[in-house]
Design brief:
By secondary structure, this protein is α/β, with parallel strands linked by helices. 42% of the residues lie in helices and 16% in strands. Helix 3 links the parallel strand 3 and strand 4. The longest helix is centred in the middle third of the chain and has 17 residues. Bound molecules: zinc ion (ZN).
């Protein structure tokens, strides 16, 4: 199965972490840059490990220039722009996001979107661009439906396993099967029951199991469907 969003550049014991993932049956990992330096790192990791693919971008917390990202775009295994998005609606963040939307459009690449309660702005800025992943989705039913209408993919991570996430589980149940993705955001957002420990891509199985439980289907079905969706979206084998 495929972990649609992680940050392998944060692990010092990379070889072991990728070994753990592979033993758990994780055949693909989408490793996301958050600034110019980490985008260069994820390209190197993708080069080194067959199962790893890279996304390159500038997170709203960074002040790097997205134009520097464009120099990296033609490296092999770069499958998306991001992660990029909004923590707030301040003009600096909006400008940063708009530049990366433009970059994705010019190169016909998917956008890996980070969104902290800026639903309206995200819809407005991304418009009808169809190649979008809402990573670590935490929005409500109305927003999910708006996203799906535009052809966007909804990726769920560890938050869907948290006790308090009742509303999010209702959303996860309602996402059309062909728009569903799963992720870890490792080393962050460890799923239940492992909270308090470091998150790793192998834990995407826990997320998949929770989604299967919510949707009343088998883990196998969720693994298959989400892997198929990720391959289609990212254009990977
Ligand atoms: Zn992330």
């Amino acid at each position: 199965m495929i972990d649609s969003h992680c940050h392998l550049q944060e692990f010092e014991d990379l070889q072991a972490v990728i070994g753990n993932a592979s033993s758990a049956g994780i055949t693909g990992m989408i490793c996301c840059g958050t600034d110019v330096e980490s985008s260069k790192q994820v390209i190197q990791i993708a080069k080194r490990f067959e199962s790893v693919y890279a996304t390159i971008g500038v997170h709203p917390e960074s002040n790097d220039d997205p134009l520097e990202i464009e120099n990296l775009i033609n490296f092999p295994k770069v499958v998306a722009i991001g992660e990029c998005g909004l923590d707030t609606d301040n003009p600096r963040e909006i400008k940063l996001l708009k530049m990366q939307v433009d970059l994705a459009k010019r190169h016909n690449l998917p956008l890996m979107i980070h969104n902290r309660k800026q639903d309206k702005k995200i819809l407005e800025i991304l418009g009808d661009y169809p190649k979008v992943i809402l990573h670590c989705f935490t929005g409500d039913m109305v927003f999910m439906k708006e996203c799906v209408k535009r052809g966007w993919y909804i990726s769920f991570g560890g938050i869907v396993t948290f006790k308090s996430s009742h509303g999010l589980r209702d959303v996860a149940k309602a996402v059309p099967e062909d728009k569903l993705l799963v992720e870890t955001d490792a080393p962050y957002i460890t799923p239940e029951p492992l909270r308090g420990t470091r998150n790793e891509p192998r834990n995407v199985k826990i997320v998949a199991a929770k989604i299967a439980e919510i949707r009343g289907t088998s883990i196998n079905q969720i693994e298959e469907v989400t892997a198929r969706n990720a391959r289609r979206l990212f254009g990977i084998a």
